[in-house]
Design goal:
binds magnesium ion, six-stranded mixed β-sheet, three-stranded antiparallel β-sheet, Rossmann fold, alpha/beta, binds inosinic acid
């Protein structure tokens, strides 16, 4: 685990942390993703599955850039608890029924890929008409679980980031930019 320079027990002033991706950059890239996805799914209806909690802001912004009809769902995935490295155990919770639908998983970050792999396999077992992954961030790290991720917002170095939905110990999700914690 990396050194923690923010105290998980108290809300710390984050204004001095490095901004990795600004709110303007996020807005522009999400607009592009929305246009690409709308073109790819022209004349189709899309069932989006947001992965809670980290994907909630990305999904909310992405759907407002879509020009196709869609339905919005969520599932809960948790693996990290209050730590900065994955525990490797991914728990899922949902009551989705997506047989025959065009489904897109919307996730905050593809780190090791354990979470997305678990979600993908779980939803694939429901026999959707199609199943794709859209992730806002993807970390450049060795030994990721290989996944066919069709839509990626930004590739980032192996830093621990917070903001725009991403947390550390359930805090800092509300920060409008993506900032580095280490
Ligand atoms: P993976 O299973 O290792 O790919 O991790 C995916 C999950 O870990 C994401 O959905 C995030 O909730 C969390 N995560 C991974 N990296 C970060 C990070 O840099 N900041 C905050 N959360 C992260
Ligand atoms: Mg998290």
């Amino acid at each position: 685990m990396n050194d923690v320079n923010l105290n998980p027990e108290t809300q710390t002033d984050v204004s001095k942390l490095e901004v990795l991706i600004s709110r303007q950059q996020l807005q522009e890239r999400i607009r592009e993703l929305g246009q690409t996805i709308s073109a790819d799914y022209k004349n189709k209806e899309l069932d989006l599955v947001g992965v809670l909690k980290g994907g909630f802001i990305f999904l909310a912004d992405l759907v407002r850039e879509l020009e196709i009809p869609c339905r919005i769902h969520f599932l809960q995935a948790s693996s990290y608890q209050d730590r900065k490295t994955s525990s490797g155990v991914v728990r899922l919770s949902h009551d989705l029924q997506l047989s025959g639908k065009h489904v897109m998983v919307v996730e905050d970050i593809y780190d090791t890929g354990l979470t997305l792999q678990r979600v993908f396999e779980d939803l694939q077992s429901q026999s959707p008409a199609s199943l794709e992954i859209c992730t806002l961030l993807s970390k450049k790290i060795e030994g990721k679980v290989p996944l066919d991720v069709k839509y990626t917002g930004f590739e980032i170095e192996n830093r621990f980031v917070i903001g725009y939905g991403l947390d550390y110990a359930e805090r800092y999700r509300e920060i409008p930019d993506i900032v580095c914690m280490d």
